């Protein structure tokens, strides 16, 4: 038992070390970071965070990212709900193939789509808007949301739909009042994954924006070359980037467990 | 409300699930759909409810054709074998939901409380269905069907997933609960004994066809054909072939005997003879019993009765005899049949003769 505990502690240590180091760095001055290796900040500073919260070129990155991520989450779940319902309830020609094809969209590397999206969005004036990235991310988030939601929906007996129809519920009313509460955890899980994938995706987000909608990840990578090595600010930006994901995870942690139990996540 | 089916049939993916079903269900009647699993009971109920549209035929409600009408516009209620409730609503809201949808706001509370009282759900109204036992969940579903005052109440094996005690209790209550509503009441079951206990009328279903529809005791006592008798028999109907010639009858494996009982009026020829398990006895009884040699294969003792499984040549029989019988498997014995307590079917399976008073 003691050996097992030691291994787990060691594992956790290795797991948490990079995150700790990032937080550690974000509270140091650049001189301390580059000159000596210290396990905790000897000259504690909040200047790095202050810079991010006051410099528009930094905090706009977060706002831009959040804009397209939230847009994308709403779009993906909104499109996926009716699609997943259809896949879970109806048999139609080629339904299984279509379902698989949706999934196969996730298998293509985003780089493949970067060029056509860039050209298309430039042509119709969507380039450098949150919509450009939000729509592009639907490419892999809609299939994912359909896949997750279909699993949850198939867990709801079809007889509930029928009982509601017999009771006199119209379809929209049934869907909102009866069906949605039953798959609430599925919607939570799907939204979480859409949020996360959109939040961490860099390639499409960077290709489809230039100035007005530049996401935080792009800001970070571009600053490295432009402003020299501002390690402290970069670390602070990294810490702030982790926060939304951590917050969302905190809210949906119970649902995720349920999602795993249903075997779809 | 009365409901009439006219030559109704349903095909699914090129397969015929139901065919040629014509029946009229009267206002306030209790109708049992009796048939084995996959006989088409649920499919037929779904057509009656309007959940599915029939491939052929028409469905009339109070003389009006409702064949293509969606289920929301029909006045039906349905209870499934699985306990189907809305898990996110309380028991109270579950029962109230059909009333809320139809906008009958004023009487909701009184109606819900009356239904809950009738089904003994009052202590659980604030709970969620999944926190209740199976019996209580099904009571909730029944209460929801009841509160709607539907003209057609469909119960699809509502008691099949309940334990024995609850089943007995609810089976007694159900017809009474719905009796005053004046609704057409359709009850699907696989168990002949349940049909007999419920009474009313019975339609026997076999492979998607209604083989006979009439008052329950009548269908039980006077089946029109072999299939109906088999469907309406538990333990399974014993069947043995027989030949009548020159005033003599020979049952397969037995000695020729004078043609008496049901055989007396039948013309010469080949027949299938059916008899129920409790009419096969291990001692000679009644007038001129027919004797057949048989081998014991298994004896099941239920407590006050014994099921004796027998082999007689090619045929397998079950005898339901009173008391505890300890018979060794493999032992030889003679079983007896009364000629009056038999059903006689011709080669096509149609009933030829049965002594109505005694064959039951």
Automatic annotation (TrEMBL), chain A:
PANTHER family: ABC TRANSPORTER PERMEASE PROTEIN, MALTOSE TRANSPORT SYSTEM PERMEASE-RELATED. The chain crosses the membrane at residues 7-23, 68-87, 99-119, 131-153, 174-200, 231-252. The keyword Protein biosynthesis does not apply. Residues 62-252 form the ABC transmembrane type-1 domain. It is found in: Cell membrane. Pfam families: BPD_transp_1. One of its GO terms (biological process) is transmembrane transport. It comes from Alsobacter metallidurans. GO terms for cellular component: plasma membrane. Gene3D superfamilies: MetI-like (1.10.3720.10). It comes from the Bacteria. It is a multi-pass membrane protein. Its main location: membrane. Keywords: Cell membrane, Membrane, Transmembrane, Transmembrane helix, Transport. The keyword Amino-acid biosynthesis does not apply. This is ABC transporter permease. Belongs to the binding-protein-dependent transport system permease family.
From TrEMBL, chain B:
This is ABC transporter ATP-binding protein. Gene3D superfamilies: 2.40.50.100, Nucleic acid-binding proteins, P-loop containing nucleotide triphosphate hydrolases. One of its GO terms (molecular function) is ABC-type ferric iron transporter activity. One of its GO terms (cellular component) is ATP-binding cassette (ABC) transporter complex, substrate-binding subunit-containing. Pfam families: ABC_tran, TOBE_2. SMART domains: AAA. Residues 3-232 form the ABC transporter domain. It comes from the Bacteria. The keyword Manganese does not apply. Belongs to the ABC transporter superfamily. Keywords: ATP-binding, Cell membrane, Membrane, Nucleotide-binding, Transport. It comes from Alsobacter metallidurans. InterPro entries: AAA+_ATPase (IPR003593), ABC_transporter-like_ATP-bd (IPR003439), ABC_transpr_FbpC (IPR015853), ABC_transpr_MalK/UgpC-like (IPR047641), Mo/tungstate-bd_C_term_dom (IPR008995), NA-bd_OB-fold (IPR012340), P-loop_NTPase (IPR027417), Transp-assoc_OB_typ2 (IPR013611). The keyword S-adenosyl-L-methionine does not apply.
